[in-house]
């Protein structure tokens, strides 16, 4: 099993009602190019993280065709909201529309045991949209501070759910191992491989966790507090931003996965 990520698909139906080549010729037929790469590299057993700005639609029913396009692609898909995803609705409405074809994560987290080339590994992942950070040239404290604070709370909630999900997964696998080994519950704890299985924490955001000067933020503080291994985000579309994002911040690896930054290919995270 492999893990991939991409953001900022900016779909608008077929044929597109808002062709992205208005932002430059490098966007020509961008969805076709993404699909070709996706099909060539992703299997149904793999995981694909979609970090926001999926559709230009304003309502969920208008976004349905774009979401169904995404759902038709290989892999288990997990999606967070971007700043342009105005169609985003309640969890129930989105589940009713898409079933289990896409899992919508917004302020939530989960964990899975996966098999990699190096062996079994627990991955914990979750996240939220995030927001502009203080110190950014576009950040206006009077209007933006409350949104920033709210997104920090949602991010921490997702990180807490990730930790809880890891604990629950270990307990579940431990209990099942005991049952499979003995046929009955044991009174003494059994030391099994799951307790030595490495855990990787992946934080999904739409906005980067840094301002334009790459100074610490509430998001980077959370990454440090919760020992996030990799932060995956999009949103950025200009060469200056592409060049200024560091490869890591503290002990957290940073992965920018805007579709145009990736030349319209999915990024293999692990």
Structure write-up:
This protein is 33% helix and 21% strand. With 270 residues, it is an alpha/beta fold. It has a six-stranded mixed beta sheet. A five-stranded mixed beta sheet has the order 4-3-2-1-11. The radius of gyration is 19 Å and the shape is globular.
Relevant terms:
alpha/beta, 270 residues, 21% strand, 11 strands
Topology:
Blueprint: E1 3-6, H1 30-41, E2 47-51, H2 60-71, E3 76-80, H3 91-98, E4 102-104, E5 108-116, E6 119-128, H4 141-182, E7 199-205, H5 218-225, E8 230-233, H6 239-244, E9 248-249, E10 252-256, E11 267-268
Parallel strand pairs: 1-2, 2-3, 3-4, 6-7, 7-8, 8-10
Antiparallel strand pairs: 1-11, 5-6, 9-10
Helix pairs in contact: 2-3
Organism: Veillonella nakazawae
Keywords: Coiled coil
Domain Calcineurin-like phosphoesterase: 1-238
Quick rundown:
With 270 residues, this protein is α/β, with parallel strands linked by helices.
- Number of DSSP helical runs: 6
What percentage of amino acids are in beta strands? 15-25%
The largest sheet, given as strand count, sense and whether it forms a barrel, is:
6 strands, mixed
Average of per-residue pLDDT values? 92
Note poorly predicted spans. 186-192
Number of strands: 11
What Rg, in angstroms, do the CA atoms define?
19 Å
Determine the fraction of residues in helical runs and give it as a percent range. Answer: 25-40%
Order of helices and strands: EHEHEHEEEHEHEHEEE
Kindly name the structural category: alpha/beta
Strand order within the widest sheet? 5-6-7-8-10-9
User: What general outline do the C-alpha atoms trace?
Assistant: globular
The separation of the N and C termini measures 9 Å
């Amino acid at each position: 099993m492999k893990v991939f990520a991409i953001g900022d698909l900016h779909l608008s139906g077929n044929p597109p009602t808002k062709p992205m080549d208005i932002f430059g010729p490098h966007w020509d037929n961008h969805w076709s190019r993404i699909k070709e790469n996706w099909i060539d590299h992703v299997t149904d057993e793999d995981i694909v993280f979609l970090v926001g700005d999926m559709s230009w639609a304003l309502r969920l029913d208008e976004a349905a065709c774009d979401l169904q396009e995404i759902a038709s692609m290989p892999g288990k898909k997990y999606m967070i909201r971007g700043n342009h995803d105005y169609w985003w609705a309640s969890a129930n409405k989105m589940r009713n529309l898409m079933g289990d074809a896409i899992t919508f994560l917004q302020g939530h987290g989960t964990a899975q045991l996966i098999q990699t080339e190096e062996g079994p590994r627990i991955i914990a992942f979750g996240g939220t949209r995030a927001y502009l950070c203080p110190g950014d040239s576009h950040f206006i404290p009077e209007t933006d501070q409350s949104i920033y604070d709210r997104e920090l709370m949602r991010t921490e909630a997702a990180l807490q759910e990730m930790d809880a999900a890891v604990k629950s997964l270990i307990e579940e696998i431990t209990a099942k191992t005991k049952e499979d080994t003995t046929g009955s519950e044991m009174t003494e704890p059994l030391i099994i491989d799951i307790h030595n299985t490495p855990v990787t924490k992946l934080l999904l955001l739409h906005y980067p966790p840094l301002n334009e000067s790459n100074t610490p933020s509430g998001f980077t503080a959370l990454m440090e507090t919760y020992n996030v291994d990799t932060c995956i985000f999009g949103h950025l579309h200009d060469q200056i931003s592409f060049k200024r994002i560091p490869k890591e911040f503290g002990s957290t690896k940073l992965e920018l996965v805007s579709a145009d930054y990736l030349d319209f290919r999915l990024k293999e995270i692990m």
